[in-house]
């Protein structure tokens, strides 16, 4: 951890690591990027979503009062905001889901997450990464330079299969509570970022802005689900820091 009293915590996406933010924040002492539970050097999560959020909250330096989270990291940021709403004065959420409200859709998602978990545990990290990268969610990345995609793939392959499986069990959307109501009541500054080529998460961002009109919704033209990878040059100017 940075010892220069960082103020802003950066939370990466599933299969990512703290290194994902390097192109955006460099060595800025105001920023702290961490490996999320089950990723990189971080221990595997235990218990449920709320338990893991509480443990993460207890580990944070007292100086942290702002959050930036992408995808899984965005959902974890929302969990932190729900657990300690008065601590965080600003949050930037990127391509994230505030939680499922329909029990049927939740069970469908649980079944889908279970398939990914079984793939990780039975076939290992290489088979998982091969399948994970071919999801339609990441279609916009196919036009990126091969060297950039190779770097992302190498980081994914460096993960532990069991760590990712445990992360899905703990933080998967099926096990995450709906945080829509808590989000609507958040009193700090909130910026929500979505790519124009990421229709599902663009729709969610518009829903958030509708339910919480004070939200500053930013739509990135020509960008898909992962602005950290696809638009690292413009993203830093959008962080609430």
Give a written overview of the molecule.
- This protein has 241 residues and is α/β, with parallel strands linked by helices.
- It has a single domain, classed as 3-Layer(aba) Sandwich (Rossmann fold).
- Helix content is 42%, strand content 12%.
- It contains ten helices and six strands.
- It has a six-stranded parallel β-sheet, covered by helices on one side.
- It is globular, with a radius of gyration of 17 Å.
What is the helical fraction, as a range of percent?
40-55%
Calculate the terminal CA-CA distance, rounded to whole Å. 18 Å
Q: Could you give the order of strands across the largest sheet?
A: 2-1-3-4-5-6
Overall geometry: globular
- The number of helical segments is 10
CA radius of gyration: 17 Å
CATH architecture: 3-Layer(aba) Sandwich
Structural class: alpha/beta
Main sheet, how many strands, which sense, barrel?
6 strands, parallel
What would the CATH topology be?
Answer: Rossmann fold
Quick summary:
By secondary structure, the protein is α/β, with parallel strands linked by helices. The protein is built from 10 helices and 6 strands; from the N terminus they run βαβαβαβαααααβαβα. Helices cover 42% and strands 12% of the residues.
Write the layout of secondary structure elements.
Layout (H helix, E strand, L loop, with lengths): L7 E4 L10 H4 L5 E4 L14 H11 L6 E5 L1 H12 L6 E5 L8 H21 L1 H8 L13 H12 L3 H11 L8 H5 L4 E7 L3 H13 L4 E5 L6 H4 L11
Parallel strand pairs: 1-2, 1-3, 3-4, 4-5, 5-6
Helix pairs in contact: 2-3, 4-5, 4-7
């Amino acid at each position: 951890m940075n010892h220069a009293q960082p103020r802003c915590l950066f939370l990466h996406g599933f299969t990512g690591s703290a290194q994902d933010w390097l192109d955006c924040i460099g060595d800025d002492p105001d920023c702290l990027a961490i490996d999320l539970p089950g990723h990189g050097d971080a221990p595997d999560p235990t218990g449920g979503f709320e338990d893991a959020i509480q443990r993460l909250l207890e580990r944070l330096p007292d100086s942290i009062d702002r959050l930036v989270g992408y995808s899984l990291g965005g959902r974890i940021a929302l969990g932190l905001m729900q657990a300690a709403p008065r601590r965080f004065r600003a949050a930037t959420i990127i391509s994230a889901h505030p939680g499922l409200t329909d029990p049927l859709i939740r069970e469908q998602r649980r079944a889908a997450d279970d398939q990914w978990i079984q793939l990780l545990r039975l076939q290992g990290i290489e088979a998982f990464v091969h399948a994970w990268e071919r999801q339609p969610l990441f279609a916009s990345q196919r036009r990126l330079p091969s060297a950039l995609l190779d770097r992302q793939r190498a980081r994914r392959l460096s993960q532990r299969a069991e760590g990712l499986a445990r992360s899905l069990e703990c933080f998967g959307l099926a096990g995450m509570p709906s945080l829509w109501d808590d989000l609507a009541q958040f009193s700090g500054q909130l910026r929500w970022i979505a790519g124009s080529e990421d229709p599902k998460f663009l729709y969610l961002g518009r829903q958030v802005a509708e339910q919480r009109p004070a939200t500053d919704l930013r739509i990135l033209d020509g960008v898909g689900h992962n602005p950290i990878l696809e638009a690292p040059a413009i993203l830093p100017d959008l962080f609430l820091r």
